[in-house]
Amino acid sequence: MSNSPLEAIQLVCQRSNDDKTLFKEGIDKEKAQNIIIWTINGLLDSQFRYGDDFDAYKSHADELINGLEEYLQILRKILYR
Known about the structure:
Elements: H1 5-18, H2 29-46, H3 54-59, H4 61-79
């Protein structure tokens, strides 16, 4: 797992561009990438609930990363070979 959601997005794009066999047969690579990126962006957007409270962001960083990993594990099972 990467250290930040942005690194996760970069990794998804890099890996799926480098390895054409990454996704299950019949899965559109571009759409799969979008699903993963939209999931990550949705989790990032959920952090807006903390407004300008930087300490709240920091205190929930582990929760965000753990949640991201849980969602990515599900998507791996669905999309990847």
